[in-house]
Amino acid sequence: MIKCMNYDVAKVILFDKNGKLFIYLRDDKPTIPYPNMWDLLGGGIEPGETAEEAGIREVEEEIGVKTDQLETFGHYVSEEGFRMTILVGRVDAVPENLLLTEGQRLTSIDLTDLEQYEMVPILAQAVDDFAAKRSA
């Protein structure tokens, strides 16, 4: 496992136009954390950037869609030390019409199907927490 301390990340619980959650399959490279596992869109927060700005930028970079508004859901820390701001948003698109610029494959799923995907553990927890709060 790669050790990375004090690295700020924005990850987005992003829903498509049908209300399904976007997830993507990470590259299968042993040099990256969690190779060949499912992940949320998002990435590193650049200096001087807010988590929301990073989330908007990352979504546009990774799938070519501009989202104007993301709301903060919560904050998590991975076992590697990644400090994650989890954001929530929606776009008027579906995976079939988008081009993923990193990773192996983009899909969207019902929240109830998450357990069928081997997802990065801390992100699976965040999505579970979101689903529990949404259904409460």
Describe the structure.
- The protein has 136 residues and is of the alpha+beta class.
- It has one domain: Nucleoside Triphosphate Pyrophosphohydrolase (Alpha-Beta Complex).
- Helices cover 21% and strands 30% of the residues.
- The chain has 2 helices and 7 strands; from the N terminus they run E-E-E-E-H-E-E-E-H.
- It has helices spanning 51-63, 121-135, and strands at residues 7-15, 21-25, 38-39, 41-44, 71-77, 82-90, 105-109.
- The protein has a 4-stranded mixed β-sheet with strand order 4-1-6-5, with helices on both faces. It has a 3-stranded antiparallel β-sheet with strand order 3-2-7, with no helix packed on it.
- Strand 5 and strand 6 form a beta hairpin.
- Mean pLDDT is 93; it is low at 1-5.
List the helices and strands and how they pair.
Elements (H helix, E strand, L loop, with lengths): L6 E9 L5 E5 L12 E2 L1 E4 L6 H13 L7 E7 L4 E9 L14 E5 L11 H15 L1
Parallel strand pairs: 1-6
Antiparallel strand pairs: 1-4, 2-3, 2-7, 5-6
Oligomer kind:
single chain
SSE string, helices as H and strands as E? EEEEHEEEH
Give me the CATH fold name.
Nucleoside Triphosphate Pyrophosphohydrolase
Question: What is the first-to-last residue Cα distance?
Answer: 36 Å
The domain tally reads 1
CATH architectural arrangement: Alpha-Beta Complex
Question: Radius of gyration, rounded?
Answer: 14 Å
Count of beta strands: 7
Strand order of the largest sheet: 4-1-6-5
* Average pLDDT: 93
Number of helices in the DSSP assignment: 2
Under the CATH scheme, which class? Alpha Beta
At the fourth level of CATH, the homologous superfamily is Nucleoside Triphosphate Pyrophosphohydrolase
Largest sheet: 4 strands, mixed
Give the class from helix and strand content and strand pairing. alpha+beta
What low-confidence regions span 5 or more consecutive residues with pLDDT below 50?
1-5
Helix content: 10-25%
The best one-word shape is: globular
Q: Report the β-strand fraction as a percent range.
A: 25-35%
